[in-house]
Task: inverse folding
């Protein structure tokens, strides 16, 4: 045998490495892609986006086929099962079986437990409740052996408790179901997982719904909806809307129930979720049946039957039969109705669903009673009554309410504990940093600061009171010439035969204006609606004085709510008075004054425009260089308001584009200060 020369060894080694590197790079690239797809699948699972999850699972299956020697296949099967759980239950079950077998083979206990959970959920949707509970309980037992302070463990425990609780509730075991559901809520609260918490609260609502406590079921459905809405995820929002719609149905508010269930159906049609479609169709058929719209109910029932038979949705098919029976009974086909009911009852008995069985026996009772077969009606009613007692037992409902009380108490205790801990830490820090000398110095400083602040506050209060009094005095002013002339005009109407009714109309407006002026002078702020009413009355009286020789218009942006906007009173009226008295719009053909309220980002803008003689001519006629008295008063008042509220009040006056004057008044956004309902503070 020829020995290798050491001289050729580097070349041989290089050639060997070159032949190996592509395979290594390929393996590394596949692992990188695999890990990326797993992260993507986990995210899609967390947000319940099963449509996208199916696509990611398909790519994992392709990767597993390209690299059969790796352990990719169980993962691909796991996410395929989860992705298909709501669209193709039989195929999903097949993938779940393969994933469970694969993870058992490679010894991955965590993924084995997760696979049992997924398979349990699939079986629950297929109506195999007992086998589903067994698998979910096995998965729960594994996760309870893990460190329950870890976020990943808490998330799996929350999901399992939620799904186990839901199945127990469906089987009529409401007490056990509520135990699991409130345990799920406790874990999800620690995680602050909005999607998961919304789903859990929906199932708690379901527990109260089955126990016929519709007030509490509605409360939890609304809580769930408020959380779900923040996610903007149709798959998360849909169950909450369905629960609210069902509650309205039970309360016989059929229009509201229909509105909510139609929203659900619209959301369902945007996805490929067959289970959700079956639930939506079931609920809609019940509502249309109750509304006596039998053609619509029967059309939807046929669609539901085909969907349920195609996808193996036993529970929903049973629901379809009970609804079809109800429609047949409404049409007087009692034998057909009993036949349909029996088919549905057989399915309900096969899956052990006590709620469905209760519904079928009650439906049978109603049909036999309508037929006049009172013996059969009594037998059905006794079976219904027996099931109803077991499902709606007062002790069971009390147990649910006890859990709710514990849950709310636990939330309060957690907040109190957090505050106590925060106070304890602050006290420790203070003791560590404080010495006797520093404490004495601090006390002296505090005494000095207290005296200073007290004196300063007293001065500020005095100044503020003076400013408020000045504002009220300024706001209460009314031109005496206007008052005299307005009363003279009204008097002439009242004394003129045939004009008394018109005089009474204007007298009412004048009285209203005087009262508004007096009322507004005592208030810091008034709603914009009151200000516009006062301006309307003022302008109407001015039109009377000048025999309707000018017009006016008051407008505002559509998004302004005049009852929710507060402004200082009598700020706008002086500018309107200037337009009439100094702008002399009544001397011009087509004289007009326009007032417009506009919304801006951080303030409101009021534009007062007229087509009068303009500022220059007005000054010449009035013999004033610095504007009218009303303008001077308003300028001073804006200055006072700016100091009071520490927000800018200002106005600009300019010549109009087509003659006249244009005033732009800027008002900051203020909130009315309300008295009589102070906020209480604790020490």
Result:
């Amino acid at each position: 045998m020829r020995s290798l020369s050491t001289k050729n060894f580097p070349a041989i080694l290089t050639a060997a490495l070159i032949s190996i590197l592509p395979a290594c790079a390929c393996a590394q690239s596949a692992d990188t892609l695999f890990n990326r797809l797993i992260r993507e699948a986990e995210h899609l699972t967390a947000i319940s986006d099963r449509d996208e999850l199916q696509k990611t699972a398909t790519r994992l299956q392709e990767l597993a086929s390209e690299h059969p020697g790796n352990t990719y296949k169980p993962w691909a099967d796991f996410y395929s099962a989860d992705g298909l759980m709501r669209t193709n239950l039989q195929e999903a079950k097949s993938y779940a079986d393969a994933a469970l077998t694969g993870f058992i083979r490679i010894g991955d206990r965590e993924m084995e437990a997760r696979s049992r959970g997924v398979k349990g959920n699939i079986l629950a949707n297929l109506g195999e409740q007992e086998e589903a509970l067994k698998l979910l309980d096995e998965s729960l037992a594994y996760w309870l052996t893990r460190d329950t302070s870890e976020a990943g463990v808490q998330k799996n425990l929350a999901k399992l408790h939620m799904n186990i609780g839901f199945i127990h509730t469906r089987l009529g075991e409401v007490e056990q179901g509520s135990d699991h559901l409130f345990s799920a809520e406790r874990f999800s609260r620690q995680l602050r997982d909005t999607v998961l918490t919304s789903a859990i609260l929906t199932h708690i609502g379901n527990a109260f719904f089955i126990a016929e406590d519709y007030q509490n079921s509605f409360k939890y459905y609304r809580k769930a909806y408020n959380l779900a809405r923040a996610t903007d995820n149709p798959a998360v929002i849909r169950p909450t809307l369905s629960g609210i719609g069902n509650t309205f149905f039970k309360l016989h508010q059929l229009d509201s129930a229909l509105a909510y269930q139609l929203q659900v159906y619209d959301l369902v049609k945007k996805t490929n979720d067959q289970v959700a479609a079956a639930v939506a169709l079931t609920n809609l058929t019940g509502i249309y049946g109750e509304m006596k719209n039998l053609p619509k109910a029967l059309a939807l029932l046929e669609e539901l039957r085909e969907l349920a038979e195609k996808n193996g949705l036993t529970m929903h098919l049973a629901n379809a039969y009970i609804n079809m029976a109800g429609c047949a009974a409404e049409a007087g086909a009692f034998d057909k109705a009993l036949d349909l009911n029996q088919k549905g009852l057989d399915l309900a008995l096969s899956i052990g669903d006590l709620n469905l069985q209760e519904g079928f026996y009650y439906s049978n009772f109603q049909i036999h009673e309508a037929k006049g077969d009172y013996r059969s009606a009594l037998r059905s009613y006794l079976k219904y009554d027996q099931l109803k007692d077991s499902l709606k037992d007062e002790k069971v409902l009390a147990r649910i309410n006890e859990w709710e009380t514990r849950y709310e108490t636990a939330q309060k205790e957690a907040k109190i504990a957090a505050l106590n801990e925060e106070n304890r830490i602050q006290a420790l820090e203070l003791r560590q940093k404080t010495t006797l000398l520093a404490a004495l110095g601090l006390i002296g400083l505090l005494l000095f600061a207290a005296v200073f602040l007290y004196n300063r506050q007293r001065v500020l209060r005095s100044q503020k009171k003076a400013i408020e009094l000045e504002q009220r005095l300024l706001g209460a002013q009314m031109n005496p010439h206007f008052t005299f002339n307005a009363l003279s005009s009204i008097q002439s109407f009242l004394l003129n035969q045939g004009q008394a009714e018109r005089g009474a109309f204007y007298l009412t407006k004048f009285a209203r204006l005087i009262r508004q002026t007096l009322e507004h002078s005592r208030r810091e702020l008034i709603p914009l609606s009151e200000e516009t009413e006062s301006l309307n009355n003022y302008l109407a009286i001015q039109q009377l004085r000048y025999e309707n020789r000018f017009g006016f218009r008051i407008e505002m942006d559509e998004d302004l709510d005049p009852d929710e906007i507060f402004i200082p009173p009598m700020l706008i009226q002086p500018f309107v008075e200037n337009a009439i008295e100094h702008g002399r719009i009544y001397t011009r053909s087509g004289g007009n004054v326009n007032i417009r309220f506009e919304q801006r980002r951080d303030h409101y803008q009021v534009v007062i425009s007229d087509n009068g003689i303009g500022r220059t001519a007005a000054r010449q006629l009035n013999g004033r260089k610095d504007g009218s008295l009303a303008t001077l008063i308003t300028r001073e008042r804006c200055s006072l308001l700016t100091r009071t509220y520490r927000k800018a009040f200002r106005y600009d006056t300019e010549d109009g584009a087509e003659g006249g004057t244009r005033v732009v008044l800027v008002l900051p956004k203020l909130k009315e200060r309300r008295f009589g309902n102070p906020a209480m503070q604790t020490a």
